[in-house]
C-alpha cells in the first residue's frame, strides 16, 4: 500500500478534507467507490447563477467532500458538504448559463474513504444531470489471454448499451446484461442511459489479447541511459541548476549545436522546484513526470529565446526542442517560448502570460501549442504563423499572417485576413500524446489518453486526462548500442518502444505490426536509415501511437522514411486510429540525406498531429543543395478520412503535400517552397504549369476541407522562378478551403495565384495575398 495514502487515512475524519485535497493535488486518490448503488447524487438549480449538489450515501457517512471545477475564474474547489437528514449538500455560486460543472465526491464508509467517478452538469440546461460514463473492469490494455469484462456506470438505475466492432453505440445497440467475453483483440465502446438524464459520453476500452505474452519483462524503474536527467524535488536548486546550465551551454549555439548529434531530456519528478530556470536548447525535451501537469510546479522559468549573438535577435532557427506536462509559475510573470518549427508546447499549465516572440521582438517562425492552459495573455507579436489546439487561454494578442485555433477557449474570433485569425470551436478528432509519468509507488508508466471527438479545452481541464496507462515492463527501452535488429526483436516479441535521446542508424526497416503498439521518444531520438532502407513501416492495424521521433534521411535514397498502412488499405480505424504526433522529418542539414517521400499515410482515419517535414536549406557544408539533399514530397495521404492538425512541410522539390484520400481534413498548414530551384525549366509540374503546388488534392477527390493555410516562396537561387499556384484542388463543391494565403519573402520570385486560378500574384514588400474561402 502507498504509505502516503495509509498515513492520511489513519488520521481520521478531522483531516479527511485536507487529505483528499492533498491526494488530488498529488495526482492520487482514494479507492474507487464500491458500486453505483453505494450512493445517489444529483444537482438542482435553484437560480440562474446557483446550483446545489446533493449526495446521499446508502450507509451513513461521517463526512462527504465534494470536489468541483467549472466556476469561471476559480480553480478546483474541495468542500466539506453539510449533512441534513442523511443527504449531504453544497451550494455553488457564481455560475452562468452554459458553464459546465465537473464534480466528484470523497466519502467515508465504515472507516475507509472512497472516491466516485466524475459527473458533469451544464448550467441552464434542461435541469438534468449527465449519466456517469461507463467504466470497464479490467480496464483496456494488453493481456496474455481472453478477458471477461464487466461494464458499469456510477449512476444508479442506468442501463448500458455497447458495441464490440468499433462503432459508436446508440440507444439501440446491444443491451449490457452481464459480463462479456473478450476472446481476441478488439475495442469495446459503451454508453449509459437513464430516463430523465442526459446520456453519458462514449467510453472506450481497447483490449489486445495474446500478443504481449512474448515480450520479455522489462524493469518498471528502467535505466534511461546517460542522456536523460531525472530531477527530484529533494535535490538542491543549485545542483539542478548546474546540470541545466551545463546542458544548455552544450545545446544552445545555433551555429554549432543545430546539426550536432547531442541529445538530452530533462525530466522532473512530481513536486515543487523553486528558483529553477531551464533555458532550452537544441534537441532538448523538458517534461514533468506527474500524471497531470500540476503535479510538477516550476517556480522559475522554462525559456526559449534568441539566445546567441549570431541569431541577431531572431528566432527563425529555434527548432527541435519541447516542453510538456508541467506547471510553470514564471519568475517575471511571463513565460517565453520563442520558437520556430518542431518545438511543441504540450500539456503545460502556465500560471502567468506566455510570450511566443523573442525579447528583442525579432522575427519568429513557429509554432504549436496543444492541451495547455495559459492563465494570462498568450502573445505572438512577431510570429509569422501559429497553431493552438484544445487549450485554454486567458486571452490572445497578435497575428502576422496565419494564426489558427481549434477547440481553444480564449481564442479570438475568426477575422481572417484582418487580423489574420481563424478559429474553429472544436477539434473534430484528437487524441493527446502518450507520456511518461511516475506512479505513487515510484514506478514508471506511460499514460495513453483516450480519443476525443469535437474536443475543446485541455484534456485535463476538469481533472485527470481520461485514458489508460501501461507499465514500463511492457516497453523496451532503446538506448545507445541498440540496432535495428534488437529493436525489431523487441517489436516482434510484442513490446512497445521507449526511445531515449540519441542517434540510431538502421540497416533494416523497423516493422510495427501489432495493434495498439506505442512508440514514444524523448530528447529527439533520431532514426537514420542506412543503405537506402525505409526507416519504419506500420501495418494497417488499430491504435498505433507514434510520438517524439526525428527521421533523418540517410545518404543513400530511401523511398519513404515512414509509411503507415500498406498500399490499398481500406479498413476503418475510426474508433481507434493511428496517431503520428511530434514526429519530424529532415532531408539534409546534418548529413547529405535523400528520400523520395518523407511520410506516406495509407491507413484510414490516421491523425497527423504536428509534424515538420523539412528539406534543409542550410546546415553542415556539403549536406544541402538542389542535387545533394534530393526529396520529392513531404507528405502523401492515400487513406480515407485522415485528419492533419498542425502540418508544417517545407522546401521539397516537387509537390510538398499530395492528398489522394477522400474525406481528408487539415487544420493549419505552413509551407515554404524550395529556395534553391536553379531555373524554371527544372521546376515545372507535369500538367505544364509553372512550378509545383505546395498542397495538391488529387483530381479524383470529391470531399476535402482545410482551414488556415499559408505558402511562401523565396526562390533565392533564381528569383526569376515562379509557381502558378500554391494550392491545386478539384473544382467540386465537396472540396472547400478557408483562410489561405501566399507570400513572396523579400520578393524573391512569385506565386501567380493562391488556389487554382483564384487570388492575385504575390507583390513586393513581403505582404500576403489572401483568399477567405474557396470555392
Automatic annotation (TrEMBL):
Domain CBM56 as annotated: residue spans: 29-123
Keyword Signal set for record: yes
Signal peptide boundaries: 1-35
Keyword field: Signal
Record InterPro entries: CBM56, GH29D-like_dom, Pectin_lyase_fold/virulence, SACTE_4363
Keyword RNA-binding found: no
PROSITE patterns assigned to the protein according to its UniProt record, in alphabetical order: CBM56 (PS52005)
Superkingdom to which the source organism belongs: Bacteria
Name of the protein: Chitobiase/beta-hexosaminidase C-terminal domain-containing protein
Species: Amycolatopsis plumensis
Lineage: Bacteria, Bacillati, Actinomycetota, Actinomycetes, Pseudonocardiales
Amino acid at each position: 500500500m502507498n504509505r502516503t495514502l495509509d498515513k492520511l487515512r489513519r488520521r481520521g475524519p478531522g483531516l479527511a478534507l485536507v487529505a483528499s485535497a492533498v491526494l488530488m493535488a498529488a495526482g492520487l486518490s482514494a479507492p474507487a467507490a464500491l458500486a453505483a448503488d453505494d450512493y445517489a447524487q444529483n444537482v438542482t438549480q435553484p437560480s440562474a447563477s446557483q446550483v446545489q449538489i446533493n449526495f446521499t450515501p446508502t450507509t451513513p457517512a461521517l463526512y462527504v467532500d465534494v470536489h468541483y471545477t467549472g466556476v469561471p475564474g476559480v480553480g478546483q474547489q474541495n468542500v466539506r458538504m453539510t449533512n441534513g437528514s442523511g443527504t449531504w449538500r453544497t451550494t455553488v455560486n457564481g455560475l452562468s448559463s452554459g458553464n459546465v460543472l465537473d464534480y466528484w465526491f470523497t466519502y467515508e464508509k465504515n472507516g475507509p474513504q472512497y472516491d466516485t467517478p466524475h459527473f458533469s452538469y451544464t448550467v441552464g440546461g434542461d435541469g438534468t444531470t449527465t449519466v456517469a460514463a461507463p467504466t470497464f473492469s479490467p480496464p483496456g490494455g494488453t493481456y496474455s489471454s481472453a478477458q471477461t469484462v464487466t461494464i458499469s456506470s456510477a449512476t444508479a438505475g442506468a442501463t448500458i448499451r455497447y458495441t464490440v466492432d468499433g462503432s459508436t453505440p446508440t440507444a439501440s445497440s446491444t443491451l449490457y446484461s452481464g459480463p462479456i467475453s473478450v476472446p481476441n483483440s478488439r475495442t469495446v465502446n459503451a454508453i449509459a442511459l437513464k430516463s430523465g438524464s442526459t446520456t453519458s459520453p462514449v467510453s472506450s476500452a481497447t483490449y489486445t489479447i495474446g500478443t504481449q505474452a512474448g515480450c520479455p519483462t522489462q524493469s518498471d524503474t528502467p535505466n534511461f541511459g546517460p542522456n536523460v536527467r531525472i530531477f527530484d524535488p529533494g535535490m538542491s536548486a543549485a545542483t539542478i541548476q548546474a546540470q541545466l546550465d551545463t546542458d544548455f551551454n552544450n545545446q544552445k549555439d545555433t551555429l554549432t549545436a543545430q546539426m550536432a548529434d547531442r541529445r538530452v531530456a530533462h525530466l522532473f519528478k512530481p513536486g515543487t522546484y523553486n528558483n529553477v530556470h531551464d533555458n532550452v536548447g537544441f534537441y532538448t525535451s523538458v517534461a514533468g513526470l506527474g500524471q497531470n501537469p500540476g503535479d510538477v510546479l516550476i517556480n522559475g522559468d522554462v525559456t526559449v529565446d534568441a539566445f546567441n549573438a549570431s541569431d541577431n535577435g531572431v528566432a527563425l532557427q529555434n527548432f527541435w526542442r519541447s516542453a510538456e506536462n508541467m506547471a510553470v509559475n514564471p519568475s517575471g510573470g511571463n513565460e517565453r517560448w520563442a520558437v520556430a518549427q518542431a518545438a511543441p508546447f504540450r500539456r503545460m499549465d502556465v500560471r502567468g502570460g506566455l510570450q511566443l516572440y523573442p525579447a528583442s521582438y525579432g522575427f519568429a517562425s513557429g509554432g504549436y501549442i496543444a492541451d495547455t492552459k495559459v492563465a494570462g495573455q498568450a502573445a505572438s507579436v512577431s510570429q509569422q504563423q501559429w497553431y493552438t489546439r484544445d487549450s485554454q487561454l486567458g486571452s490572445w494578442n497578435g497575428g502576422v499572417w496565419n494564426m489558427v485555433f481549434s477547440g481553444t477557449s480564449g481564442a479570438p474570433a475568426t477575422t481572417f485576413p484582418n487580423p489574420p485569425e481563424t478559429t474553429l470551436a472544436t477539434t473534430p478528432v484528437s487524441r493527446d500524446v502518450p507520456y511518461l509519468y511516475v506512479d505513487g509507488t515510484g514506478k514508471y508508466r506511460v499514460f495513453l489518453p483516450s480519443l476525443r471527438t469535437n474536443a475543446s479545452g485541455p484534456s485535463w481541464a476538469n481533472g485527470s486526462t481520461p485514458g489508460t496507462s501501461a507499465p514500463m515492463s511492457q516497453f523496451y527501452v532503446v538506448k545507445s548500442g541498440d540496432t535495428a535488429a534488437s529493436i525489431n526483436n523487441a517489436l516482434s516479441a510484442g513490446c512497445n518502444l521507449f526511445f531515449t535521446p540519441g542517434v540510431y542508424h538502421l540497416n533494416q526497416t523497423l516493422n510495427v505490426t501489432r495493434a495498439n503498439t506505442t512508440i514514444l521518444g524523448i530528447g529527439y531520438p533520431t532514426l537514420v536509415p542506412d543503405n537506402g532502407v525505409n526507416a519504419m513501416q506500420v501495418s494497417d492495424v488499430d491504435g498505433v501511437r507514434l510520438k517524439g521521433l526525428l527521421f533523418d534521411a540517410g545518404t543513400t535514397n530511401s523511398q519513404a522514411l515512414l509509411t503507415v498502412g500498406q498500399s490499398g488499405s481500406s479498413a476503418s480505424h475510426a474508433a481507434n486510429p493511428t496517431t503520428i504526433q511530434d514526429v519530424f522529418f529532415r532531408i539534409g542539414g546534418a548529413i547529405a540525406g535523400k528520400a523520395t517521400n518523407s511520410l506516406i499515410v495509407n491507413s484510414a482515419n490516421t491523425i497527423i498531429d504536428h509534424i515538420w517535414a523539412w528539406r534543409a536549406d542550410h546546415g553542415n557544408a556539403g549536406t544541402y543543395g538542389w542535387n545533394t539533399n534530393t526529396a520529392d514530397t513531404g507528405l502523401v495521404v492515400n487513406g480515407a478520412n485522415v485528419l492533419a492538425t498542425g502540418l508544417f512541410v517545407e522546401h521539397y522539390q516537387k509537390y510538398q503535400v499530395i492528398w489522394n484520400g477522400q474525406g481528408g481534413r487539415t487544420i493549419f498548414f505552413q509551407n515554404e517552397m524550395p529556395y534553391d530551384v536553379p531555373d524554371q525549366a527544372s521546376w515545372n509540374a507535369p500538367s505544364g504549369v509553372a512550378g509545383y503546388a505546395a498542397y495538391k488534392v488529387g483530381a479524383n477527390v470529391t470531399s476535402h476541407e482545410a482551414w488556415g493555410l499559408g505558402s511562401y516562396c523565396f526562390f533565392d537561387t533564381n528569383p526569376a522562378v515562379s509557381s502558378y499556384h500554391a494550392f491545386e484542388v478539384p473544382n467540386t463543391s465537396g472540396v472547400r478551403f478557408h483562410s489561405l494565403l501566399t507570400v513572396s519573402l523579400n520578393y524573391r520570385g512569385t506565386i501567380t495565384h493562391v488556389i487554382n486560378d483564384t487570388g492575385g500574384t504575390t507583390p513586393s514588400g513581403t505582404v500576403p495575398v489572401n483568399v477567405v474561402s474557396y470555392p
